[in-house]
Amino acid sequence: MPPTASLPGLLDSVAPILDRWGYLAIGGVIGVESFGVPAPGQTIMVAASIYAGAGRMNIYIVAIVSFVTAVIGDNIGYWIGLRGGRKIVHRWGKYIFVTPERLEKAEKFFARRGNRIIVVARFIDGLRQLNGVIAGITKMPWKTFLIYNAIGALLWVGWWCTVAYLLGVHLVEIMGQAHRYKWIAIGLIVVAIATYVTLHVRHVRRRRARSAATVEEPQT
User: Fold this and answer.
1) What is the pLDDT of residue 38?
2) Kind and range of the H or E element at 194?
3) CB distance 75 to 39 below 8 Å
4) How far, in Å, CA of 185 to CA of 179, rounded?
């Protein structure tokens, strides 16, 4: 039974692929996206989950295929980064819209956050595609990458499959109205970040002041 409403925007664009190839389409698109090729992996997973909610696919198979191919794809990216790394990206990256500047920015962001970014990289466009490649280039231990990458993929798949499956075609309405509140959401995020940074800087300064005062105290 098809959904009672058409899929919105990019979701509708992947519907023909899902209709023809089913679970193979999910695995193929997510797999290639995960080792650096710009592809609508998240989009096709959400669309498949909506289909599952309408009875056209099995949500458990959608989730399993998405998780397994995400992990496999990221590990292919890891070995590409480890073996060929920067040379491959600099030579062929322009054909998949991965410029040296984009790679450099992603590497710096990756280096500052360490293992934590592996977990959240799946939710960040750009890092989702380059996550494994950058981990390989920076020579992160493979077992460490595997563990954190699996956790990130599990959270990513679990979140989007659950939300899309439960909301179903109502997600169409939500996505259609979301742009009205985009700037409000951005404003709240900016305020939250500014507040956090201010409090953190204030805490660091107070701690340094206390440390300096302790050092300057005369010994009795």
Assistant:
1) 76
2) helix 182-216
3) no
4) 10
| Residue 162 DSSP code | H
Write out the H or E segment, with its range, that includes residue 111: helix 100-113
SS3 99: coil
Average confidence score pLDDT of the chain = 76
Distance between CA 133 and CA 119 in Å, rounded?
A: 15
Under 8 Å between Cβ of 119 and 151: yes
The angle at the Cα of 104, spanning 100 to 108, to the nearest 5 degrees, equals 175
Distance CA 173, CA 69 (A): 30
Rounded to a whole number of angstroms, the CA Rg of the chain reads 22
Give the residue among 17, 26, 147 at the shortest CA–CA distance from 78. Answer: 147
Rounded (to 5) percent helix, strand, coil in the chain: 80, 0, 20
Residue with tokens 């900016």: 190
The token pair at 173 is 């309405």
Q: 0.70 exceeded by the pTM?
A: no
Residue 40: both structure tokens together: 């609508």
E-strand stretches of the chain: none
In the numeric block, which tokens belong to residue 84?
């060929």
